[in-house]
Design a protein that fits this description.
This protein has 12 helices and 9 strands. A 9-stranded mixed β-sheet has the order 6-5-4-3-2-1-7-8-9. Helix 4 links the parallel strand 3 and strand 4.
């Protein structure tokens, strides 16, 4: 029997409801993580508090349920708490994505009072490794203290663990630490090029065989649910980007997702509804089904390769073409299966 949540996701995709929206409050950040996809940490914030409030009202009226506040480091905006409070008043489930370093006692109190779900990037249980990834001495102690503050207040906390060649130990050490702290942990190996196309972060991506060994076979949560047979529906959109998900950049650009190039419009010039319903770019994204893909449409690996439109476009130059990293991942899955691992 299909779960109510899967039915909700399918309905949102079918009716083009922006169920999930991420708002990048700022590009500014107090860390310089080696794998980060933000190319310019000094770029001006383009959305005022009032414009974001108007956006939240609009999203509430369009059926958005899940809202992510991210950055850069969102706590560098003085109005982050006002925005989060307004979002909660409108009934959104709010997820705050932060590096945690700026969470003091007052900030932790606010997060607890608003019942936010807080995702904190956590790079290693080893202080030296952690600081090497962030580029900031003492960052481990500050972030760990933040996690402990939130845990004492019973805030919903998840440590997100981007595993690269710099912090292989984190795949096991951070979940163990999270368990001791009484919080959740999520390990992932997806590393992306910078938004301007700079491929430098990709040098830190784990080899496919190593990445597959770190997690169960499965696809990114931004992909749409498979059908009851566990297969991708060839007639439905392959990805949530521009279908039931949108990302708002700090400059006000409305994008299919945080890493997919191409803006559908800008909130300083149009309303979100006008962009969501009328953008030719979003209409194109919604038209992409597995059958639209050039080579991939007949590939038996498509059900588990984890192909991403954005990665295919940025790394291989073709929105509808194969993604080398996805092909490598699928082949690694098959090798692991053949070995009986």
């Amino acid at each position: 029997m299909t779960s109510p949540f899967v039915n909700l996701v399918r309905r949102a995709a079918r009716e083009h409801i922006p169920l999930d929206v991420a708002i990048e409050l700022t590009n500014h950040c107090n860390f310089r993580c080696a794998h980060c996809y933000i190319p310019d940490f000094e770029a001006r914030d383009g959305l005022s508090t009032e414009r974001i409030f108007a956006l939240l009202d609009e999203l509430a009226g369009m059926g958005t349920l899940f809202l992510a506040l991210t950055g850069g480091e969102p706590l560098l905006r003085n109005d982050w708490a006002e925005i989060a409070r307004r979002a909660r008043e409108l009934g959104f489930q709010v997820m705050l994505l932060t590096n945690g370093a700026l969470i003091g006692e007052a900030e932790a109190d606010i997060m607890a009072a608003l019942s936010l779900h807080v995702e904190i990037s956590f790079h290693s249980a080893d202080p030296a490794t952690f600081d090497r990834v962030t580029g900031v001495n003492g960052s481990f102690e500050r972030v760990l203290a933040a996690v402990e503050r939130l845990a004492r207040r019973n805030v919903s906390v998840e440590l997100t663990v981007p595993v690269t060649t710099l912090n292989r130990d984190a795949a096991r050490s951070v979940p163990e630490l999270a368990h001791r702290l009484g919080v959740e942990a999520k390990v992932y190996t997806s590393i992306f090029a910078k938004k301007d196309g700079n491929r430098e972060p990709l040098q830190l991506r784990l080899p496919a065989d190593e990445a597959v060994a770190l997690h169960e076979i499965g696809r990114s949560t931004c992909l749409l649910p498979e059908n009851e047979a566990g297969r991708i529906d060839p007639d439905e959109p392959l990805c949530a980007a521009g279908v039931r998900y949108a990302a708002i950049s700090a400059s006000g650009e409305v994008r299919g997702c945080t890493i997919l190039p191409g803006a559908a419009g800008n909130l300083n010039e149009q309303s979100f509804r006008e962009i969501w319903e009328g953008s030719p770019w979003f209409q194109r994204l919604r038209s992409i089904t597995p059958q639209s893909l050039k080579k991939c449409s007949t590939c038996t690996k498509l059900d588990y390769c984890g192909r991403c439109h954005a990665v295919a476009l940025v790394e291989d130059g073709d929105l509808l073409g194969p993604s080398k990293s996805a092909c490598d991942f699928a082949e690694a899955i098959e090798r692991r299966h053949l070995r009986g691992a």
